[in-house]
Design brief:
With about 110 residues, the protein is an alpha+beta fold. It has a single domain, classed as Trna Endonuclease, Chain: A, domain 1 (3-Layer(aba) Sandwich), CATH 3.40.1350. Helix content is about 20%, strand content about 45%. The chain contains two helices and six strands. The chain is elongated, with a radius of gyration of 18 Å.
Length: about 110
């Protein structure tokens, strides 16, 4: 079996450059509550739905600092950055939508594969 997405994500986060602050973002819906083990089975007591980022959102998000042109007197700005990790396969239609939106609005979008 090849490299898992989780391994690639961990590698990216461990080795981010000084000018970036990136975070793992979970998308979709899951369940939260108090986990109770019964042998090999885990039951979630008082379960409630937990909604993460919208479906299609990049696996890693944050910002990248860049020094901008002289007309802005050398100030630094933080540019939104999204990184989609793909161990196999290609971007889904929803992921492509987010990529296009981020780029259209001046952000940075990368796809990292194994």
């Amino acid at each position: 079996m090849g490299t898992k997405e989780r391994d690639i994500i961990n590698e990216v986060l461990r080795n981010m450059p000084e000018n970036q602050r990136l975070f793992r973002i979970n998308a979709g819906m899951g369940w939260a509550g108090r986990a109770v083990k019964h042998g090999n089975i885990t039951v979630i007591k008082n379960a409630f739905p937990f909604h993460g980022a919208p479906e299609g959102w990049p696996d890693i998000c944050g910002f990248e600092s860049k020094t901008i042109t002289p007309d802005m007197v050398g100030e630094k700005i933080a540019i939104f950055k999204g990184i989609e990790i793909k161990a196999t396969g290609k971007l889904s239609p929803k992921q492509l939508h987010f990529k296009e939106m981020i780029l259209r609005m001046g952000g940075i979008f990368e796809v990292i594969t194994s």
